[in-house]
Amino acid sequence: MARGNRSAFDQLYQRNAGWIAARLRRRCEDPELAAEVLQECFLTVWRSAGGFDPRKNAAAWLWTVASSRLVDAHRRRQARVRTTGEPHESALTSASAEAEYMRSTLSPELADAVHRLPPELHAVLKATVLDGMTVRETAALLGIPEGTVKTRARKARHILREALA
């Protein structure tokens, strides 16, 4: 694909578009936006295929590209919102796609507890729970051993249980 082989791109798309689309729809309530992001993802992959390290996990790379495009799409959408008069401070910042998803699906207490997790635990929880990645995919995405993913996930669950008790 890095050499412009359209057949290789078609195979990559056929093998991965379904699961990426499903994950995008879980994180984005707007099906049209999710479809747009899917197309942007594969366009980005086509253009940057030469930079992909074949020793890395392709699925993790694809999901990283897709989730980044989703965040970009949410930011573009927020930027289009116009206010009249002096903007309120909250209008100057926009919530991430993840924050919007959590706000719409989790209780306020749980969303707050997740938000307060240390970054390394939050990253593992985001990849495994919100993005639906396996331990192996999460390890490849974050560049850490699988055992570390399991340990961090267990620690995150423990912290969340205590916060909600």
UniProtKB/TrEMBL annotation:
Q: Which GO terms describe its molecular function?
A: DNA binding; sigma factor activity
User: In what residue span(s) does the RNA polymerase sigma factor 70 region 4 type domain sit?
Assistant: 109-157
The superkingdom of the source organism is Bacteria
- Cross-referenced CDD domains: Sigma70_r4
Give UniProt keywords alphabetically. Sigma factor, Transcription, Transcription regulation
Per UniProt, residues of the RNA polymerase sigma-70 region domain are 12-79
Q: Name the family the entry cites.
A: Belongs to the sigma-70 factor family. ECF subfamily.
Q: Which NCBIfam families has this protein been placed in? A: sigma70-ECF
Name of this chain's protein: ECF subfamily sigma factor
Q: What is the lineage of its organism?
A: Bacteria, Bacillati, Actinomycetota, Actinomycetes, Pseudonocardiales
